[in-house]
Amino acid sequence: MIEHAPLDGEILGPEEARAAEDRVRRKFWPTLRKALRQVPFTHDLVAAYYCAIDPDVPLRVRATLLGALAYFVAPIDAIPDLLLGIGFTDDATILLGAISMVAAHITDRHRALAKKALTD
């Protein structure tokens, strides 16, 4: 993987992005299982996960998605996930914003991997 220096305005540099990726890889699937009933855009969310861990995707895009996914898997956030019906609304808002920002980088391959993962 080619290392890139953080650009002006980037939140995560390469080391922070790796740490966020590790956290997301560990916690994404368990958190998704808990939220599945409440997340209407699950397919897009899983495709974004595969985009975020794809080393061929630009670091800036991966960092954007990893930041949003890290918030999704974080046990503490603005609205506790345990609140039925509204617990994942803050997560959904952040995820939808991030996915919208980088949608051009979420490829058919990422979507195919998401479809496979959701049918397994």
Strand content: under 5%
Whole-number count of domains: 1
- Helical run tally: 5
Q: Which bin fits the share of residues in helices?
A: 55-70%
Radius of gyration (CA) equals 14 Å
Q: How would the global form be characterised?
A: globular
Structure description:
61% of the residues lie in helices and 0% in strands. Helix 2 crosses helix 3 and helix 2 (42-52) packs across helix 5. The protein has helices spanning 14-35, 42-52, 59-73, 89-101, 108-119. Residues 1-9 have low confidence and may be disordered. It is mainly α and 120 residues long. It has one domain. This is DUF1232 domain-containing protein. It is a multi-pass membrane protein.
Summarize the structure.
Keywords: Membrane, Transmembrane, Transmembrane helix. By secondary structure, this protein is mainly α.
List the helices and strands and how they pair.
Elements: H1 14-35, H2 42-52, H3 59-73, H4 89-101, H5 108-119
Keywords:
mainly alpha, disordered N terminus, membrane, UCP031804
